[in-house]
Write a structure and sequence with these properties.
The chain has 559 residues and is of the alpha+beta class. The chain has 12 helices and 29 strands. Strand 3 and strand 4 form a beta hairpin.
Length: 559
């Protein structure tokens, strides 16, 4: 079916100070945006809704595809979509409003409001939570209990996992690591500091004043809501319904419409509710000691597009995708929400930005290649391992620095390099003169990743006889979960409730004793031995969980 393009401008103009009603003065741009969503503008599939604002008013709103495919009920700009992690900015806004009210301080210990959280040796402040520098493990380590994101998950299920944590991924304040746990706890802080339910606080203090009348927090998956897009994804047999039985909030579960997201983006560019001070605090990012850019503010990612500063956030949930992009210096914002799983959404938002304000963007500055001596390059050579187990080998060959023995790293600065074939760059931020470096940063288009130097050691090929050292059952007190390591022929496997994955060795040059990886979201698996050389423990590490320990069970009475 054709897309539903709704103006809604006159009504919005009454709600946003300074906004006046006018149509897009460049109809060709609206046509171009519609062309970007042609694949979603079909009568028998889910789709998306789009809103763009410029210079204080909406300039484009449209919806594509079906909100309920089975009923042929189309999406509109008044259809509510799951915004997933885009929700985090509303939680951060609420915390900053409560600080302005004098109800809390960002430097407060989170246990002042959530004493159920374990008393770790170091204080975790509210600001650590806001910036994802708390060191807490992500709540979705529940997957090691056998849960999936489509299972029925209550808020209490999530809090039980958080309150059972006894170890941190990192010392609070020392490292950025995105964790949904942080914002789940912040929502609880909002409730206890304000004396209101989280959804009521957001409705009264944020949504209602901005006229976001169709935006809500889905704090119980069983509650029926009108005008809500149902979630879908692609499976082996084609289109499938997805389950959305998740009742957590703070980190996710704000549902909003294109109409309402336009109102929200206008408030970020020209704050009417909350004031400019709160928006400024949301955009102040802390520098991760292990990261070159300051990538996360408070509920917003801080980035760049074609030389222009961006405030942005994406979100993914079963059957849903969302992305919001604001270019504050260009007074432009665009949101895209979909009731299907798609990897296109970030690209689509940026292409829409190019259509409307591309002419006003500073433009990327092309880096200039520099020449490094062999001695200068040698400081960077070594093996680096990323949290989660990915390993990078940096060496020299024919007078050039080489990644994984194959791809030449072209120097574009004294400690920064790029690949010719991929849109990825690398840097070594702690490069002391004359000595080896410790850290490698991988700069993907979407985010930065960190890998730390490891000592190269030799580890022989794992034989069936060697596998017997690891075979057994392992128990996590934090998760009350059991993992089993077993052999299947000449293969080693990790099995748990709802999961099974092969355990593999890295290539010979990148191996370490007792360290393996899995081709799954579990990530890396490392076994630990006692002084007698017996394997007593395994630890799981991936981008959201570091060294989550499972102790070996030799006797069932150990339970």
């Amino acid at each position: 079916m054709q897309s539903t393009v709704l103006s809604g401008v006159c009504a919005l103009a009454l709600l946003i100070p300074g906004a006046s009603a006018r149509a897009d003065d460049r109809p060709d741009r609206a046509t171009a945006v519609a062309g970007l969503f042609a694949d979603y503008d079909v009568p028998d599939a889910p789709g998306c809704a789009v809103a763009a604002v410029l210079s204080g008013q909406p300039v484009f709103k449209a919806a594509y595809g079906q909100a309920i495919v089975e009923a042929r009920l189309p999406n509109t700009t008044a259809t509510a979509f799951q915004t997933a992690s885009v929700s985090k900015q509303f939680t951060a806004f609420a915390i900053l409003m409560l600080q302005a009210d004098g109800k809390l301080s960002l430097q407060d210990d989170v246990r002042k409001y959530v004493p159920e959280l374990h008393a770790f040796p170091q204080i975790i402040t509210l600001d650590h939570l806001l910036h994802h520098t708390s060191g807490l493990r992500d709540e979705w380590m529940m997957m090691l209990q056998g849960r999936t994101q489509e299972d029925r998950v209550s808020r209490q299920d999530i809090l039980r996992v958080l309150f059972a944590q006894r170890e941190l991924n990192a010392t609070p304040g020392e490292q950025y690591a995105y964790a949904n746990s942080d914002y789940t706890l912040l929502a609880l802080v909002v409730e206890r500091a304000s004396g209101q339910r989280f959804d009521e606080f957001l409705r009264q203090r944020i949504f209602a004043p901005l006229g976001m009348s169709d935006t809500y927090v889905q704090d119980d998956w069983r509650t029926l809501r009108p005008k809500t897009a149902q979630p879908y994804g692609r499976g082996p047999q084609g289109l499938e319904r997805r389950s959305a039985a998740y009742s957590g909030y703070g980190a996710s579960n704000v549902h909003s419409t294109a109409d309402d997201m336009a109102r929200w983006m206008l408030n970020l560019v020209t704050p009417a509710v909350g004031g400019p001070g709160i928006v400024t605090e949301m955009t102040n990012a802390v520098r991760d000691p292990l990261s070159v850019p300051a990538v996360y503010g408070r509920g917003l990612e801080i980035g760049w597009h074609r030389g222009a500063r961006t405030l942005e956030h994406g979100g993914v949930a079963p059957g849903a995708s969302a992305f919001m992009l604001v270019l504050p210096d260009q007074h432009f914002g665009v949101s895209v929400t979909c009731n299907t799983e798609t990897n296109d959404i970030r690209r689509l938002a940026r292409e829409i930005a190019d259509l409307y304000v591309g002419h006003a963007l500073p433009g990327d500055v092309a880096p200039t290649p520099v020449a490094l001596t062999e001695a200068e390059m040698r400081r960077f050579t070594g093996v680096y391992r990323e949290t989660g187990g990915a390993v990078f080998d940096v060496s020299t060959r024919d007078g050039a620095l080489v990644l994984q023995g194959e791809d030449v790293l072209e120097a574009i600065g004294p400690n920064r390099f790029r690949l010719a074939r991929f849109p990825v760059s690398f840097s070594f931020p702690d490069a002391p003169a004359g000595g080896p470096v410790r850290t490698l940063h991988i700069h993907d288009p979407d985010k930065d990743r960190v890998a730390v130097r490891i000592e190269q050691t030799s580890a022989p090929d794992l034989t069936p006889e060697g596998m017997t050292d690891y075979v057994g059952r392992y128990y996590s007190p934090e998760l009350s979960a059991v993992l089993t390591v077993e052999t299947r022929g000449d293969q080693l496997w990790l099995v748990g409730a709802g999961l099974e994955t092969q355990v593999l060795q890295p290539p010979p040059l990148l191996r370490q004793p007792d360290a393996f990886f899995t081709p799954s979201s579990i990530g890396g698996v490392e076994f630990h031995r006692d002084p007698d050389g017996q394997v007593r423990e395994l630890a799981i590490t991936n981008p959201r969980v570091v060294a989550l320990r499972f102790r070996r069970i030799d006797d069932p009475t150990d339970f």
